[in-house]
């Protein structure tokens, strides 16, 4: 069983890792045709926010599946 500190460390690393992976994937998409002229800074901030939302959502899913798999031993 994980202690509270270990669980916090795994969660932190997971969130950072998935946000980084999402950022790398977002940089592979060409958003230029969708950006209005003079609005590049706002578009970069939007991409950053989308990256954080998607990455933390995937991380949360991963952590929940991990927790559910640990809880399976309570079934029997």
3D architecture notes:
With 76 residues, this protein is mostly helical. The chain has one domain. It is 74% helix and 0% strand. The protein has helices at residues 4-27, 40-71. Helix 1 (4-27) crosses helix 2 (40-71). The two termini are 17 Å apart. The model has no long low-confidence stretch (mean pLDDT 92).
Strand content: under 5%
**Averaged pLDDT:** 92
What proportion of the residues is helical, as a percent range?
over 70%
Overall geometry: elongated
Structural class call reads mainly alpha
**How many domains, as an integer?**
1
Low-confidence stretches: none
Quaternary status: single chain
List SSEs in N-to-C order.
HH
Task: Kindly provide the radius of gyration, computed on alpha-carbon positions and rounded to a whole number of angstroms.
Answer: 17 Å
Number of helices: 2
Main sheet specs = none
Termini separation comes to 17 Å
The counted number of beta strands is 0
Keywords: Membrane, Transmembrane, Transmembrane helix
Organism: Virgibacillus chiguensis
Pfam family, one: DUF1146
Protein name: Conserved hypothetical integral membrane protein
Characteristic key phrases:
74% helix; elongated; mainly alpha; 2 helices; 76 residues; single chain
In short:
The chain has about 80 residues and is an all-alpha fold.
How is the topology of this model organized?
Layout: H1 4-27, H2 40-71
Helix pairs in contact: 1-2
């Amino acid at each position: 069983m994980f202690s509270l500190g270990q669980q916090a460390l795994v969660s932190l690393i997971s969130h950072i890792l998935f946000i980084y992976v999402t950022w790398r994937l977002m940089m592979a998409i060409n958003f230029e045709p969708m950006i209005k002229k003079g609005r590049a800074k706002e578009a970069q901030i939007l991409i950053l926010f989308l990256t954080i939302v998607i990455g933390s959502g995937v991380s949360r899913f991963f952590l929940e599946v991990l927790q559910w798999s640990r809880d399976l031993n309570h079934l029997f």
